[in-house]
Amino acid sequence: MPLLEPKPEALSPGAMRSPTHDRVTDERAPGTPEPLRSELTALLGPRKVLWKISDLVRYASDASPYRFVPQVVVVPEDIDDVSAILSYARGKGRDVVFRAAGTSLNGQAQGEDILVDVRHHWAGIEVLDGGARARISPGTTVMRANATLARYGRLLGPDPASAIACTVGGVVANNASGMTAGTTRNSYRTLSSLTFVLPGGTVVDTAAPGADADLARAEPELCAGLLALKAEIEADAALTARIRAKYEIKNTNGYRLDAFLDGATPVEILRGLMVGSEGTFGFISEVVFDTLPLDRHLSTALLFFPSLTAAAAAVPLFNEAGAIAVELMDGNTLRASVSVQGVPADWAGLPKTTAALLVEFRAPDEAGRDAYERAAADVVRRLELVRPVTSVTNEFTRDSGTISGYWKARKAFVTAVGGSRPSGTTLITEDFAVPPSRLADACDALLTLQAEHGFDAAVAGHAAHGNLHFLLAFDAAKPSDIDRYAAFMDDFCKMTVERFDGSLKAEHATGRNIAPFLELEWGPRATELMWRLKQIIDPDGVLAPRIVLDRDPRAHLRGLKTIPRVEAVADPCIECGFCEPTCPSHDLTTSPRQRIVLRREMMRQPDGSPVETGLLDAYGYDAVDTCAGDSTCKLACPVGIDTGAMMKDFRHQRHSPREERIAALTAKNFRAVEAAARLAVAAASRIDDRLLEGVTGLARRAVRPDLMPAWLPEIPGAAARELPRTSRAGASAVYYPACVNRIFAGPEGQHAPSLPQAVVAVSARAGKPVWIPPDTAGTCCATIWHSKGYDTANAVMANRIVAAAWGWTAGGKLPLVVDASSCTLGIAHEVVPYLTEDNRALHRELTVVDSLVWAADELLPELTVLRRAGSAVLHPTCSMEHLGDVEHLRAVAEACAREVVIPDDAACCGFAGDRGMLHEELTASATAKEAAEVNTREYDRYLSANRMCEIGMDRATGRSYYSVLMELERATRPGPGQV
User: Fold this and answer.
1) CA trace torsion 637, 642, 647, 653 (10° rounding)
2) Model-level pTM?
3) Phi and psi at residue 149, in whole multiples of 5°?
4) Around Cβ 806, how many Cβ atoms within 10 Å?
């Protein structure tokens, strides 16, 4: 063990907790039992079998109120792996559940035996027919697919609110729809073809020539059974009519029996049945969608009404006017949305009875939008709208920023309301549909029922399609609360079916939650057909038992998870998983959600239990060390949960007093540290890379990998000792070269001016000269210590840089231009909690400007571009995302190159200052998709605006990234060349 390895128990919650009834029991502490572990390892290889107790616990939760701990988690890489897993399960009498994003709300992504992760190795999109169709792998998120399709003016039909995280495979398996899909744009209606693996291992491509003949040879009994059921259904006129009627409104409860009416052959029938089958019929390995036009001319309004029923009554009018989306939000939803960045603060004061409709029209051209706006105005004139707070306008807008804000508030329904629930309570998300003409009555009935059972729920939904969602919070540790929830569900299901002939699940699929009520909605005849259908396709019962079909009338009450209190920054988490795709470590170790899930299980455990010990042993590396600390999870989380901040705090808790003192000394003496670092880099550049890699490798093993950086061949040489000479007189801004740019040079072999020289030159060229203070040495943005949780050192440098900056800028009269985006973020925002009161006052007077903003807003209008590169690919850093500077990066790059590309898979590189040198595997994993996309072609320029991130991308791609400010200087430098 390394000398300075922290003790796992440093992160133990201690004795201040109460063990819960649903804690993982002690006998599960060793992880996957034998022979299951060794047999699957022999079958698939050790990399594909996750067996530690920490692995099992982190996969036990999803966005639903349920929690089931699997026996093992396997991570297949291809169809052969999936077939092998299914064959093993059949032979051993085991069952299998497939899990992709884990955003499902009814527990269908959870299993109690073999859980199969089908997200990690199953991403990708191929555009077909000029964008008219798209072949998509099941682990691809909807947002990622749409990003590619947008270049062709197309998009997918399904548009769930969880598009940032949910995967295409999950969307198809649940027939999830969303705001605009309704019954005509969902997966069932827009799928061109599917490839899937049946429980018996047979692979079916529904678009393949001879697919039916191949299936008949491979699965004759299955084919005969499907055709027999088809004949039986078609012979029953009443049943046929009932099936057709059930799908006139949104419905995902049970199996798609209309597939027997729409398909003529077994393959065609299976193509329909797989949609919404929730992984109980097979594994969907590839999807081909017929895409839809992306109408870019929008007109949107958020209209406020005195009551929920008044808002619901207006929905048919907007449907008739041609609105593509009419979204309903009640007062509880609107008030909870103030936790979402950008939502007006005065919504917190909205009356409880207030409701709103988010109405959107989309057209392919201006004329179409004008016509829609005239129709909308006619509707609005007939409505009695209210303006209960100042920010309400009740007007249609074309402004993209305003429209984006409206949708951000709407899509945050589950997370914002869930995040504001009482601490320690479990969240239930229900969704049902009624005929749109009955929506107002259904709203009234729902509110009455909630009041009768003591729930003050939040209500929202896709009102245009008669689809409502509501959220309930209760304490799963209290039997009385579970009984109250059970009584409510009984009455709710009866109300929906008997009073409104509605769907108990409109788009969230049956899952575990509604399985006991399937027969109530469909009746015994259709339900019995569904049981027979499952037996025909999966006769051994391998796939997803107790999901969709369950004869236990209390099945929906089994496995409800408690939500123990954890650290305040993470306590609001509802485990939705929106954060996961943005996390640099999510394909390597854990995601933000999983870090919180693991922490909650520690809180369920008694102090010192074997399970807690196992979790703590893994948590140090899996959660704390491999967190990049970039806080992109905060950007993805609708309520801004910053799991990165929690991990930094955990790093602080693990430090010994000695480590804290040493860190503080480095901050106090940073001038000497900076000079020594520059000398060391200069010396290292003259030593063989392999020798340096070996020496640092030995030191890392002896000391601690999280303290001793590894040498990377991509590390550049030393920067010049002297910064460019500048004058304070006449300066338009103070230029602060970040310490990383004072230590490291630019790309090797590039003889152009250094970054500081480029910034000085291009600013002067634009008539806006900058001044570099002579005493920048020994100062820093404090991120070095902040990212590692060294609070004392962080405070030392935070206060030093703010005091210095205030003096340099003459008390804030000049802007402070910073040439590394992470340092801009550090000085502008991250230092604030560590400042003294006096320095906070000074900080409020500062204007901290990123060099990208300086270049785009101040320099470009005054510059003449003399030469442009052919193409440039950009790496937007996570700090740019936090600062909102990505478009500034694009603007500067577009001045320098005729073609500018931001990869669809661009994400945080995970280098995180020096974390990529401490844990090379983090950056390798975080950059894998972006690097693969970048290297599909050659670019003339590889540009970013943060030196350490550029080094990370150099290592990932084998290319040479550098600051876009250096390229701007080249493009505007007087001399030979042309645009």
Assistant:
1) -150
2) 0.95
3) -65, -30
4) 18
For 900-930, write each residue's pLDDT tens digit: 999 999 999 999 888 988 899 999 999 999 9
State the Cα torsion 570-576-581-586 to the nearest 10°: 60
Per the structure block, which two tokens stand in for 140? 């691809």
Going by C-beta distance under 8 Å and a sequence separation of 6 or more, which residues neighbour residue 568? Answer: none
Question: Residue 812 — very low, low, confident or very high, per pLDDT cuts 50/70/90?
Answer: very high
DSSP assignment of 581-648 equals GG-TTTTTS--HHHHHHHHHHHHHSPTT-HHHHHHHHHHIIIIIIT-----HHHHHSTT---HHHHHH
What are 129's two structure tokens?
């027919």
Q: What share of the chain is helix, strand, coil (3-state, %, to 5)?
A: 45, 15, 40
For residue 768, the surrounding DSSP H or E stretch is none
**What value does the CA radius of gyration of the chain take, rounded to a whole number of Å?**
29
Please, what is the average pLDDT of the chain?
A: 94
Cβ neighbours of 30 (radius 10 Å): 15
Question: Which tokens belong to 41?
Answer: 């390892």
- Residue of 872, 926, 861 whose CA lies nearest to 896: 872
CA dist., res. 597 & res. 905, Å (int) = 26
Q: Where does 778-878 show beta strands of DSSP type E?
A: 816-818, 848-850, 869-874
Best CA proximity match to 280, nearest among 74, 509, 57, 440: 509
pLDDT at 127: 98
> What does DSSP assign to residue 725?
P
Tokens for 271?
Answer: 């193509």
Q: Which of 289, 238, 220, 231 is nearest to 261 (CA)?
A: 231
Question: Given this model, what pLDDT does residue 712 score?
Answer: 81
pLDDT tens digit sequence for 592-642 = 999 999 999 999 999 999 999 999 999 999 999 999 999 999 999 988 999
Burial 881-893 (b: 16+ CB within 10 A, else e): bbbebbebbbbbb
pLDDT number for residue 979: 47
**Cα(107)–Cα(99) distance, rounded to whole angstroms?**
10
Per DSSP, helices labelled H in 685-777 are: 689-702, 739-743, 755-765
Query: How far, in Å, CA of 479 to CA of 483, rounded?
Result: 6
Strands 897-901 vs 869-874: parallel, antiparallel or unpaired:
parallel
- Report pLDDT for 85: 98
